[in-house]
Amino acid sequence: MLLAIDIGNTRTKFGIYENDSLVSRFDVPTIRTQAADDIFQPQTNQTIRAVIISSVVPELKNTYQELARKRFSIEPIFVDSSTDFNLKINYFPTENLGVDRLVAAFATIEKYGETCIVGDFGTATTIDVVTAGRIFLGGIIVPGMNTMSESLFLKTAKLPQIKIEKPARVIGDSTTSAIRSGIYFGYIGLVDGIIERMIDELGEKPKVVATGGFARLIAESSVKIDVVDDNLLLEGLRLIYEKRFR
Q1: Of 78, 115, 149, 158, which has the fewest Cβ atoms less than 10 A away?
Q2: Pairing mode, if any, of strands 135-143 and 11-18?
Q3: What's the predicted TM-score (pTM) here?
Q4: What CATH homologous superfamily does 2-78 map to?
Q5: Mind listing the pLDDT tens digit for each residue in 175-228?
Q6: Does 226 qualify as catalytic in the annotation?
Q7: For residue 232, what are the contacts with CB-CB under 8 A and spacing of at least 6?
């Protein structure tokens, strides 16, 4: 069994694979001060034989290394910008490119095999382009929806913090509904507008793939997203392990 771990800024996702089948998936809050013993108990009776990890939280590397060593007697594999993704990376400097973006791009081209725009919608949103010729062209980074909401709450005296969800109508009839509508529909405009401009620059219609915690919510109203792939990064980690480390 392979344990794939995707450490994000807000949530850490775990996928347990038997060959190419995802047999268990769960997630926990990302807590930067958490000890290895407090993270999770593996939800399987079978033996974990390999652990592969991607992380955008560098201070947790030692914690998860200890987790793999203590729980499974395994030295984990950490994926980073030096990993061979079999991609030409047009991004400078490469070491500044988040490993989550690389794993998502790799997984997308492996799974869909054509030019794709891939959006990862979480604490931050990234929207990147990877071509059928396996060239990572780059993309954009913007604050995620919840980050926008928290910023309004923290930077103003009277605006409330709101739950991110799809409003019933655009025109809000209260401060709460006006903020919710502004963030949600404003975000849909942002996402679809950026994707449209990317398509214009590419000069072709790519497949548009969405992943991350807000992907399904955004896809409800987006006219540009073709497919939501909830396990894209975990699948990317599995594929990297199969192709590079097995």
Answers
A1: 158
A2: unpaired
A3: 0.93
A4: ATPase, nucleotide binding domain (3.30.420.40)
A5: 999 999 999 999 999 999 999 999 999 999 999 999 999 999 999 999 999 999
A6: no
A7: 104, 107, 108, 111, 118, 120, 209, 211
